[in-house]
Amino acid sequence: MERQPTIKDIAAELGISISTVSRALRNQPDVNPETRKMVTDLASQMDYQPNKVALSLLNRQTNTIGVITPNLDYVLATMVKGIDEVALEAGYTVMVCQSDESFGREIVNTKRLLESLVDGFIVSVSSETKVFEHIKNIQKKKMPLVLFDRFIEGMTVPSIRLDNALGGRLATQHLIDEGYQRIAILAGPENLVISNNRMEGYLETLKANGIRANKQMIIHCDFNQQYAYEATKELLSMRTRPDAIFTISDRMAIGAMLAIKEKGLNMPHDIGLVGFNNEPVTNLVTPRISSIEMFAFDMGKAAAKMFIEMAHGHEHTNDQQKVFKPKLVVRESSKRT
Amino acid sequence: MERQPTIKDIAAELGISISTVSRALRNQPDVNPETRKMVTDLASQMDYQPNKVALSLLNRQTNTIGVITPNLDYVLATMVKGIDEVALEAGYTVMVCQSDESFGREIVNTKRLLESLVDGFIVSVSSETKVFEHIKNIQKKKMPLVLFDRFIEGMTVPSIRLDNALGGRLATQHLIDEGYQRIAILAGPENLVISNNRMEGYLETLKANGIRANKQMIIHCDFNQQYAYEATKELLSMRTRPDAIFTISDRMAIGAMLAIKEKGLNMPHDIGLVGFNNEPVTNLVTPRISSIEMFAFDMGKAAAKMFIEMAHGHEHTNDQQKVFKPKLVVRESSKRT
DNA sequence: TTGTAAGCGTTATCAT
DNA sequence: ATGATAACGCTTACAA
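Above: the input entities. Below: the structure tokens describing the complete assembly.
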């Protein structure tokens, strides 16, 4: 890589001092118009670009946000897009690191970015993450930190999250309203808060409708189409099989759908299905899958906005949380009436 | 954000000079074991982290790669994941910027990152991009630059690309082999090289099989499910409708599929369909869609490897290109025999 | 073995 | 209107 031109080079070339060059370039008053012209002309001729690293060192801020995400699947990619959008607008650049749902990689990523490269973090923790020292570390340094999507129970961190329990309630109540009685749930990994919250909504709603929850109807499995497929096959081979399934992700809904079709059951007649996330794919399959919309793009934007407010030193409390309300989107897979 | 501890602080606290601290911290010889212990102990107690910005300024390199991508849809997200993987391994951090298929945002992103924030670039140009001054600019600065996926015709830039024409040939030949005669193509935007290459493969193969290309069977439309849906409706209402459609992306294949189903046609009997990318969704719909696998993850890894070689000053020629061979994956949508 | 000082590119403060 | 200098945090000759 070639050495880039600096104000020093410009100053030397023009036989003036670097402070004058600096001033001229930044349109400060108190600089002779002729001098300014000389400087700006030469600068653009040399294709001079101010060195952001030097500025970062000087100002002790990099105008960079470290974004750590477990993956870039639909929901998180959409959120990251929202973050990107707002950040760019506000003069921030975003460093996206994928932890790949691995605790180890999350640690490594955090540590790297922490080394004075970023002004703060917007983080969604991996499904493996059960210890939060690295997150506390960020807080200890008083850096702006916003969690999004996946959050941490029992820790007060500013965050953007979804009312997952409501999502669970909406889905379950809808199935009940459509006349389904034996509603199974494919829940996510056990330690994942969002997954548990969706399940709580499910349990709550069953109870509110006088339906006894059945442990055999509650399956924990990875956020994964294959597992969901297997789990559904299992469910469908029960002596009293479920007549509806609520999966806490659309990926899982697809897996469930494959198993249902294989079994020769008709949706929504024989069995109902509701997913979560409202991914485009729900519209592409036959029958189309009902799902819970979570406004991922807006959530991303909100996360970035909250971050920027914190970075600009606006007062904020640590337990500031913005909670988005999900919305039920009814499609053929669950519409029996 | 709190001021982070520096070696200066450590030195002051211990009453020694900063160079000694620096040496102790970096395990240099020539430093008294006792001094070293004092220093390292205090450092870890203060949770000292070396300031990367200062180091970047000193070394004139940031160990950061600027990745510019038009979007984070399946293919590019997968490639970015590959880039990430290799980069992390090699001690680089990745800054991902989405241009959102907009030329303007691509320019802005490039310019920002160029301001000495990154050591070089791995870029996939937006579909809008027809002028390449910003890319030439990077080259002029002698920064490592690798293009991936989308590349530029008539410019010699190191790049990782797919043999798109081969992809077009594989798909088309397969359809012909399955007995389809009137094969339409939903090509992408006209100025996009990858799209044109796929079409060339299509045209070539028709010719090689003695089939006359029909202009009405060649539709240019955005990489977009909705457009593909409209275009297919149009195609299917022709007096002599096509009996097969090759779409140059799986998204478009889904759009086409919707139109085909709406028309009540049976796949693969009445009409054949082949997509491109081999996205997971091709496996989720009924019938499953045949597609062209492009090994996106490996392509991303290769891009990062090439970048790192360049950054390490390995000799390279500007026209160094790694071309991946796509593979046909046959599924039900096109298997008539 | 340790300290001093220059330098990385820039801005801000204080002269001139 | 312009210049000299210190500072940001660090490394690295060079000196002690």
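Note for the figure: The longest strand of chain A covers residues 64-69.
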